[in-house]
Amino acid sequence: MRIRLTLVYAVVLVGTCAVLLALNYALLYRSLYANVNDPPPAEIAATCDRANEDPVADTKCAAYGRVSIETDRLRRSTLVDTAGTSALALAGIAVLGLGVCWIVAGRLLRPLRTFTATTRRISQDRLHERIALTGPHDEIKELADTFDEMVTRLEASFASQRRFVADAAHELRTPLAIVRTGAEVQLAKRQSTPEQWEAMARRALTATDRAGRTLDALLALARSDSGALTKETYDLAVAAGAAVSDADTELEKAGLTVTTDLRPAPVHGDPALLDRLLSNLVDNAVRHNRTGGWVEVASNQQGGQAVVTVRNSGNPIAAADVQQLFEPFHKLANDRGSTGLGLAIVRSIVRAHGGTVTATPIDVGGLAVTVTMPISATRSIAG
């Protein structure tokens, strides 16, 4: 690329100089052949016509001839010398220009060489590398800064992926370890009663149920992240009502008071994932509540958006910790029963449907989660 740039710069330089020299030659030619001191042609012709009759006219005519011949010679000589000098100057400029253009092209391409060397060093295990290009804020620096920002996002993505894989492995290893340990302890006993075997079996069922719930959550998260959705008009109010009905048993056990205000909120999306979305929100509100607390579920339409809000009482949550609740496998300090994927799945499903989700801590304790999605264009139900 350096050779091509050098040739381009040299051609432009030599071409420009050639045009300037040609213009200078044309101006010189015009100046030489426009001598205002020469007598008018009519006067010369009249003088030469009288040359046979008048000796003075004969002398002037001869002088005019000699001056004309000498002038023509000097003009040709000047033009030839000027053309030769211009050609030599143009050749010198071409040679010197090649050298200068080679140096200039090298300096211009130096940031690109730095760019190339850095990109070659970057790999999955060396995402900390940055170009960090210095110099004037031009197109090359803007490209380098954009590349650095992209690598920063990739580094964060890979780090998040590694944490996710490690957390998933831990969540799946724990119930398997419980089953294995229980079986080894039971087999190590010389005499085991049926009651002991039954207790071990119940622990194994509980552990495998936990592993199953974790796998189901991972599959839901993967499906929503893939973007492969079945789109049809679906009312979030219906999904919210079904989620509350499914949680009746848990609500009754915890002694929670449920308040619903479900108004039509149609969206265009995947019914199965939208059901999972509302189920996770209600389950999260029930799980992270206090005995005798309350849960509020509401849906409506606001400004061309379908809005669902789930609020619940519970322990106070610091505002700085709210956004972390949407990270996979993030659990509260007092959370011992969940997979840590509930709100992560909620965020993934909402994003897959072009919506937003926000969480706000309640001053007296608890959390309010609001989901906003575009209203279905095929059917808008008045609230």
Automatic annotation (TrEMBL):
Keywords: Kinase, Membrane, Phosphoprotein, Transferase, Transmembrane, Transmembrane helix, Two-component regulatory system. It catalyses: ATP + protein L-histidine = ADP + protein N-phospho-L-histidine. GO terms for cellular component: plasma membrane. Pfam families: HAMP (PF00672), HATPase_c (PF02518), HisKA (PF00512). InterPro entries: HAMP_dom (IPR003660), HATPase_C_sf (IPR036890), HATPase_dom (IPR003594), His_kinase_dom (IPR005467), HisK_dim/P_dom (IPR003661), HisK_dim/P_sf (IPR036097), Sig_transdc_His_kin-like_C (IPR004358), TCS_sensor_his_kinase (IPR050428). Its EC number is 2.7.13.3. The chain crosses the membrane at residues 7-28, 83-105. One of its GO terms (molecular function) is phosphorelay sensor kinase activity. SMART domains: HAMP, HATPase_c, HisKA. It is found in: Cell membrane. Residues 106-159 form the HAMP domain. Gene3D superfamilies: 1.10.287.130, 6.10.340.10, Histidine kinase-like ATPase, C-terminal domain (3.30.565.10). This is histidine kinase. It comes from Asanoa ferruginea. The keyword Phosphoprotein applies. Residues 167-377 form the Histidine kinase domain. It is an enzyme of class 2 (transferase).
